[in-house]
């Protein structure tokens, strides 16, 4: 049985990517490489190259192409623009102290992307072959991976319908492309706890919807509430659902509550994957890691504002935090609910569970495991000369 770190394995290029192979990948080098810049902000400094793969119903998947980073050319009636038939993923490349580059559990991203594609009626793709194409893109632009513990290279696989018709129908044309950018801290004050605004009048997702898929509409539709949260002095929205004000997500993060539950047990709890919650890779990793420790109860259970308020009044809350690829771990400082500011307790940083989780996950991502952890974090390097292990999952 493997742990959250799982195995670093070689990605073979021998498997089929639909009717094509990753071995068919065509590479066109940029004639004007960018000057490398210091990382500032999130998602504004892009690499020299991008990956594109076109699909049509009649011809299937075309040969993958790595090409210079350019603007896309789309038909004005493209159904991705009119009807939101599109999705994306997000994962990071980390540079370790050993100078090797690592992806953290990328096959989980590929699996989630395939699930989103089915929901969007976009064509199926070979997940392993796509990852191999992404690996080649990272290899080509590896100089953009920052030499910093606090920065990384963000990978954004994107899948859109290029159907050029105003009829609402299943696409007969599509484009899968991958771009990459340097990223620093997601929040400007990442060292501090985030503030959340909880108001049930806005809903991020609903049963039977697409809240468990990574589609652009799930994010664009949150902006109005996000700016209202700012008017109330908060940085993010705590998304509630239903008449009992179930806690679902915080901004674009999964949410965790570390508390003493109603039965007097120490517990780390997060809402279950019931179709509303996005199945975050960091979320899954936190659950697997803390269950491996076996030190307290770890559950996926429904949480609501009534239970949280009671626990705060009875001093049973240890801390709350959000998790995600962009932010990793983000502690929650206070919540504005029904006009009242609910202050979330803070322990010393070295004593907080969230700090311990973040350190262990970071060690896995950059290959900084201690000798006592190495039996948990097996490493099998790829054929790329001493630089590119892929930290993947192999559960069971």
Automatic annotation (TrEMBL):
What does the record give as cofactor? pyridoxal 5'-phosphate
On assembly, the entry states: Homodimer.
Q: Give residue numbers for the modification (N6-(pyridoxal phosphate)lysine).
A: 214
Question: Where does this chain mainly localize?
Answer: cytoplasm
Function description: Catalyzes the first reaction in the catabolism of the essential branched chain amino acids leucine, isoleucine, and valine.
Enzyme class name: transferase
Q: Which region is the signal sequence?
A: 1-22
Q: Which family does it belong to?
A: Belongs to the class-IV pyridoxal-phosphate-dependent aminotransferase family.
User: Which positions are tagged coiled coil?
Assistant: none
Q: What is this protein called?
A: Branched-chain-amino-acid aminotransferase
* UniProtKB keywords: Amino-acid biosynthesis, Aminotransferase, Branched-chain amino acid biosynthesis, Cytoplasm, Lipid metabolism, Pyridoxal phosphate, Signal, Transferase
**Known EC number(s)?**
2.6.1.42
Its recorded reaction(s) are: L-isoleucine + 2-oxoglutarate = (S)-3-methyl-2-oxopentanoate + L-glutamate; L-leucine + 2-oxoglutarate = 4-methyl-2-oxopentanoate + L-glutamate; L-valine + 2-oxoglutarate = 3-methyl-2-oxobutanoate + L-glutamate
Any keyword Ion transport? no
Which PANTHER family did the record assign? BRANCHED-CHAIN-AMINO-ACID AMINOTRANSFERASE, CYTOSOLIC (PTHR11825:SF70), SUBGROUP IIII AMINOTRANSFERASE (PTHR11825)
Q: SUPFAM superfamilies attached here?
A: D-aminoacid aminotransferase-like PLP-dependent enzymes
Output the NCBIfam families linked to this UniProt entry.
ilvE_II, PRK13357.1
Subcellular localization is given as: Cytoplasm
Pfam families, sorted: Aminotran_4 (PF01063)
State the Gene Ontology terms under molecular function: L-isoleucine-2-oxoglutarate transaminase activity; L-leucine-2-oxoglutarate transaminase activity; L-valine-2-oxoglutarate transaminase activity
Give a Gene Ontology cellular component term annotated to this protein.
mitochondrion
Q: Does the keyword Lipid metabolism apply?
A: yes
Q: Give the encoding gene's name.
A: BCAT1
What InterPro entries does this protein map onto?
Aminotrans_IV (IPR001544), Aminotrans_IV_CS (IPR018300), Aminotransferase-like (IPR036038), B_amino_transII (IPR005786), BCAT-like_C (IPR043132), BCAT-like_N (IPR043131), BCAT_family (IPR033939)
- The domain of life is Eukaryota
Any single GO BP term:
L-leucine biosynthetic process
